[in-house]
Amino acid sequence: MACGASATRCHRVGIVKTAGLSLDQAPPIDIPFKFFLTASLFSVIIGLLLIVKGEEVFLSRWTPLALGITHLITIGFLAQVMTGAMIQLLPVLAGSPIPAVITISRIIHLSLLSGAILLVTGFIFSHRFSLFAGAGLLAAAFTLFLIAALISLVSSGIRHNNAVSLGLGWLAIVPAVAIGIYLAMGLTGIASVSDMSRLTAIHLSWGVLGWVGIVLFATVFQLIPIFYVTKEIPTHIRHIAFAVIFSLLILYSLSHVIASRLFENSLVLIVMLFLLLGITVLYAIHRRKRKILDITLLFVLTGLVFLVLAAIVWVVGDYDLIVGVLLLGGVCLTIPIGIIYKVIPFLCWFHLQSLQVKQEKFSYSLPSMKHFISDKDAKRHYYLHVGAIFMVIISIVFPGPIVRLSGIVFSLSSIYFLKNVLFAFLAFRREQKALYV
Amino acid sequence: METIKDSMTQDHRRCDDIFVEMEQAIVQQQWPEADRLCREFIASMEHHFKIEEELLFPELEKAAPQAGGPVNVMTMEHDQMRHLMKQLASSVDKKSKELSTGYSDTLLVTMQQHNIKEESVLYPMADNAVPVLADEIAKAYAEPV
Ligand code: HEM
User: Fold this and answer.
1) For the domain bounded by A163-289, which CATH number is listed?
2) How far is the alpha carbon of A84 from chain B, nearest alpha carbon, in Å?
3) Which residue among A39, A81, A245, B132 has the highest number of C-beta atoms inside a 10 angstrom radius?
């Protein structure tokens, strides 16, 4: 089944190792769709929470609601998007499919889904059992994914350049989750944890900078030459940058046990490195041959600008909440959405094209990528999304009824995202049916 | 001396350049220009495919049987691109900006992911297995399309 729609061709090509050349080894398209749709549902929940409980959320970053929303973004949205995309991408990168991909991805999807719901309810209602049940399910989901990915990589024996960077990024989820569980024990009084706030900073650094940061940048580096015809960023520069970031994260973690200015300041270096990477990508985009400003590129560019803003506000001083919104909402939502809007149409087209060859229906004219998500729909979502982020920031600076309004705009934006992904799926199904009759 | 990878990569960039110009003309709806560039683009692509399919791939498969898999995938993707180019040409014919940009966008992604795979896997393989072809390929590209 790993060959998806084009089993016959996969068989022919599969006799000789294709060195990761064939997208044909990609798993069925329902799998990424399922993960992306779930992610969009979680972002709808964030919007609804902002409408109902907006004032409470932004009192401080430590309110149960703020912690709940933080994890709705990181676990609810990002974990779904990133694992869904990786399951799709791994066979292509590694040249060998994930074992029993349908079953494995179903288990991962369900445990991420239920784990996120339980963890977030645990935060919001300060419910101990729910918090730990959620944490356990999440830990299980990530462990299963890492093992499956490792098997796929090892059995292929092929080292794709980018697999190293992605692997490093995924490794960072281990300390992030482990420290998260320890923090939860501290929060609920099961363990006495010294210096919670420092440890929280270490936890979120592994999660946001290590896991999301490295995986996201490794993906962006890989995709911008393909999607926007930019120059490739040399592989050794990427490898060195990610390795340094990872090492600095280890040093920063040591600051919890060893008091040292050097260790503490490694966080500043990490942020500066990401800033440098962000500027490198912006520069490569600026220098690209193809001058058309694609909507998906606009999402990516905007996300990078939010990254620069977040770093500036962080350096200027005590505006944690704003930095959080810029980073989690501005960067960690915006860039993945842009990538999804390019990846989904390409996957749809690619799978249909394979099916067309298999069915030998060459007289049938397949629609192009834009048929699945049009520029107009992506653009509308872009305005709603960026508007929502700005309104949330304004409502932090000027608390008041505007919070609800920002919640409404955020909800609309999320619903629009859900609609776009869902309609792409339905359009895919229609075309698929047309090829089968 | 130019390696196989050098010549082939340069030709990829040459096709990219024409593509970018063509896409610009489509977006600005300068149809006579778009039509001319579309023809030029398709001719360049076919020229590139021809050198690969008639010269490079058969020799490579003879010298290195393990290249058979990747060569199969590449040839398949050539056919995908041929199909897309046909759809693109007919949309440019109809002077439809929406259809044309849709197909050009799809073609671009297909083309770029294809090129990266050739440049990072297949051409280095060829430079190893059939280095004697380097001159002949360089010469083939020196000729006008
Ligand atoms: C099973 C997984 C996880 C558990 C059990 C967990 C648990 C926790 C706990 C208990 C806190 C609050 C600490 C305190 O009140 O001082 C926290 C904060 C935080 N976590 Fe997690 N976490 C998990 C995964 C993640 C991941 C994967 C990320 C990021 C990608 C993340 C990002 C954050 C952030 C940003 C904060 C700080 C929120 C703030 O400062 O306002 N967490 N986490």
Assistant:
1) 1.20.120
2) 20
3) A39
